[in-house]
Specification:
Layout lengths: L2 H29 L4 E4 L1 E3 L1 E24 L8 E6 L5 E2 L4 E5 L2 H54 L6 H59 L1 E3 L4 E2 L1 E2 L22 E2 L4 E18 L11 E6 L7 E12 L6 E8 L11 E18 L4 E3 L2 E8 L2 E6 L1 E5 L3 E5 L6 E3 L3 H11 L2 E4 L3
Parallel strand pairs: 1-22
Antiparallel strand pairs: 2-21, 3-11, 3-15, 4-6, 4-10, 5-8, 6-7, 9-11, 11-14, 12-13, 12-15, 13-14, 15-20, 16-17, 17-18, 19-20
């Protein structure tokens, strides 16, 4: 190879090495490029503030007629017929039926026992009547024998001593026989009455069982007591289910526990809403407050309501809420059970107060504070919480225009340290 070729090869190699080095350095800078982490902030504002509570709700008929599975022993029941949810029903119409096979079998058994008990009672009564007639004849004869003996004793003064003695003994024997017979008759009557009472009890038990079975069969057919719409309840399982799981509605073939609510027929003359409200807003609501209601499916119409009841608080620790029931003051013909609604309750109107977004307020170890902007960055500053709403809080302890952080700067710095980035604070 000539020296020129070798020189060209060396130049090309150096160029390739330089290019690879340049691209490597560039890639390294891209990988280790400093990330900017932003701390969102807001300023304390002074002005008028309307505090409201908002929630989503579902339309229901007021004072619903709840249909429950009949209390029949401790055995589960099985649905055989069930109206569809939302289907219109008339008063007296059959809406729910349960399987009556077991109760019909019990009814046949009870009727058979009743027929047998009636025959036993008839036989025992006949035997008792025959015994009574026999005892009555025996008593009548014994009483006649006693009267004859008494007449014979009256002749004793005219008779020899031996004959008189025989008459006296005969009278005593007639008296003893009648006394013993009366005692035996009384005992037999008591025994017969007891036997008849047992037979009567057996008949009564069979009658009661037959009546219970008939009543159960009748109770397993549920009818509507008013005109309206049929609303099927959710099938609540007997064991715990996973959080967030949507429970299905009851349907034909499902197993139902006695006393369990399976459906309801709302009173469509008195509409109401059921809304789940955050536990934090309970103190701002009271029975009788006026409510602005928007029915999602009925556009262009404003509805008014009144807080009717505040239910018990429930739900997991991270989502505590309660049911707020609201009576609808101006219902319309378009409404149907199950329609979604948005409610707004105006709880207070404050004038000239200092407020900031709710996420700018922090609470820890009994302290209420904000992270206020200073020369050294965002620093914690204690404040007094005056009122709280879903979106904003009214506070005291900082001046108007003070810039506060909307997130915890300490957490942002930890993220910065973990990523190796630099902190840059930006205001809104």
């Amino acid at each position: 190879m000539s020296w020129r070729s070798r020189a060209v090869a060396v130049v090309i190699g150096c160029g390739a090495a330089a290019g690879a080095t340049w691209y490597g350095v560039r890639a390294y800078h891209r990988i280790t490029e400093t990330k900017q982490v932003v701390i969102p902030s807001a300023k304390v504002q002074r002005g008028d503030l309307t505090l409201t509570v908002t929630a989503k709700g579902e339309l229901r008929g007021g004072n619903p007629e709840v249909l429950t599975a009949p209390m029949i022993g401790g055995t589960d029941l099985h649905l055989t017929t069930l109206k569809r949810s939302g289907e219109p029903v008339k008063e007296g119409e059959v809406v729910v039926e349960f399987d009556t096979t077991e109760q019909e079998y019990k009814l046949k058994e009870a009727e058979a026992d009743l027929a047998e008990a009636e025959q036993h009672l008839i036989q025992a009564s006949a035997e008792a009547r025959a015994q009574e007639e026999e005892d009555a004849y025996a008593l009548s004869k014994a009483q006649a024998d006693l009267r004859a003996a008494e007449l014979d004793v009256k002749k004793n003064p005219l008779l020899p001593a031996i004959s008189a003695k025989e008459n006296t003994l005969a009278l005593e024997g007639a008296q003893d026989h009648l006394k013993q017979l009366e005692h035996n008759v009384a005992n037999r009557k008591a025994t017969t009455d007891a036997a008849l009472a047992i037979q009567e009890a057996g008949k009564g038990k069979a009658e009661s069982q037959a009546k219970t079975a008939k009543d159960n069969i009748e109770a397993m057919t549920l009818k509507a007591h008013r005109d309206g719409y049929f609303s099927v309840r959710q099938n609540q399982p007997s064991v715990c289910c996973f959080f967030g799981m949507t429970l299905p509605e009851f349907q034909s073939g499902d197993t139902v526990r006695p006393g369990m609510a399976v459906a309801e027929i709302p009173d469509l003359k008195n509409w109401e809403l059921a809304a789940n409200v955050s536990e934090l807003d309970r103190g701002h609501l009271a029975v009788g407050q006026k409510v602005d209601v928007t029915i999602i499916a009925v556009s262009g119409r404003a509805y008014k309501g009144t807080v009717k009841d505040l239910g018990a608080t429930g739900g997991p620790p991270w989502d505590r809420h309660f049911e707020c029931r609201i009576a609808l003051d101006n219902p319309s013909a378009e409404l149907r059970p199950g329609m979604s609604a948005q409610i707004v309750v105006t709880t207070d109107e404050l004038r000239g107060v200092l407020s900031l977004p709710a996420q700018a307020l922090f609470e820890s170890d009994g302290r209420t504070f904000v992270y206020a902007r200073s020369a050294a960055g965002f620093m914690p500053k204690d404040v007094k919480l005056v009122r709280r709403s879903e979106m904003r809080v009214v506070i005291d302890g900082v001046g108007e225009g003070q810039e506060v952080a909307l997130s915890n700067p300490t957490d942002v710095e930890k993220k910065k340290a973990a990523s190796g980035g630099a902190l840059q604070s930006l205001g809104k």
